Amino acid sequence: MQRNDQAASEGLTIAGITYGSRLLVGSGKYKDLEETRLATEASGANIITVAIRRVNIGQDPNVPNLLDAVPPSKYTILPNTAGCYNAKDAVYTLQLARELLNGHKLVKLEVLGDEKTLFPNMPETLKAAETLVQDGFDVMVYCSDDPIQAKMLEEIGCCAVMPLASLIGSGMGILNPWNLSLIIDQAKVPVLVDAGVGTASDAAIAMELGCDGVLMNTAIAGAKDPIRMAHAMKLAIEAGREAFLAGRIPRKFAASPSSPMAGRVA
Question: Fewer beta carbons below 10 Å: N end or C end of the chain?
């Protein structure tokens, strides 16, 4: 599947900045900050997302600061609104993050619908996105795999749309590649799979579909060996992107000999 844009294979460009890695990682669910640091390094990621309502990045001087393990001098910190269930709370959370991170503009918006599925509340997501864009934020947005609503978010001015592959933390992989393909085909901004990746093959499939990148947390942090899994995800993202650019052979219901028939010895 070919995209209208000609994004360079070497990097991922979001809001005018190009990053060397197309893998974005989360910072939660690790056993300690040292494991967070080692897994993030093994992933090769440049962007690490942080749940402002759950992780200390300077709000509390009495507890360990995540930024000591993943410093902003080395990584782009992507504040997110995990745990927000309405537009008002999401906007306030990211305005707080901007203050804590000295005017940082790149953020990840997610407004959840309920605690059981963590599926996005799209009406509140659209409302929050519009407010944040008007307030000068560069908004990457977690959304349903609905092509119509993904397009609406792009038209509001979001710098990337991030449809879920399956429920957050489920590890179910890509359940609806057709919807993802529709979103990718129409998008003029980067499309990144967010949520549901379980293992390296899921990440590779997302990239083979033509996604610009993948964001994941549980698939790495919840693995038996998070550091090794982080490295596996790095390789999967690279392999999937190369396969997408190379162009797969068409599927067909007939065999095709690998060796040429012409000139064969009888």
Answer: C
Please confirm, yes or no, whether 88 is among the known catalytic residues: no
- DSSP codes joined into one string, 120-182: B-HHHHHHHHHHHHHTT-EEEEEE-S-HHHHHHHHHHT-SEEEE-SSSTT-----S-HHHHHH
Lookup: tokens for 182? 């529709």
3-state helix, strand, coil in the chain (%, to 5): 35, 15, 45
Per DSSP, 90 falls in state: H
CB contact set of 247 (below 8 Å; sequence gap of 6+): none
Quote the CA–CA distance of 144 and 121 in Å, as a whole number. 9
Distances in Å between the Cα of 232 and the Cα atoms of 28, 72, 125, 221 are 19, 24, 32, 13
Supply 168's token pair.
């957050």
CA distance 238 to 250: 22
Contact between residue 81 and residue 52 where contact means Cβ atoms under 8 Å apart: yes
101: phi then psi, degrees, rounded to nearest 5? -110, 30
Catalytic choice (31, 105, 108, 151)? 108
Give the relative orientation of helices 200-209 and 226-246 as an angle to the nearest 10 degrees: 20
- Written as six digits, the tokens of 225 are 């060996």
- Residues 244 and 170: their CA atoms lie apart, in Å, by 25
pTM for this entry: 0.88
